Fold this protein.
Amino acid sequence: MPGLPVTVDVTSLKASIFSMSQVLSAASTRERHLVRVLPTRYQLSDGTTWSQAYFTVTGSGQVQYDQSATYLSGSGSQTLRTATATLPT
């Protein structure tokens, strides 16, 4: 299977669905998602309020995002987690 494995864990979100640009659409926030992705920048969107966050997957499959994004966790690992119930609008 092509792409790098990354786990997306948005179970902290109060919305019931979320999307990840070019990868997931209207996916459940009640479970973790293992996705295979290419190294690039992605947008994570809360499907209820359309709030959003941006992150990058590196060539080694690690998640990176701006340090000011306190609503995300997992930088430097292969798991992106939301750390809050909502994303910024």
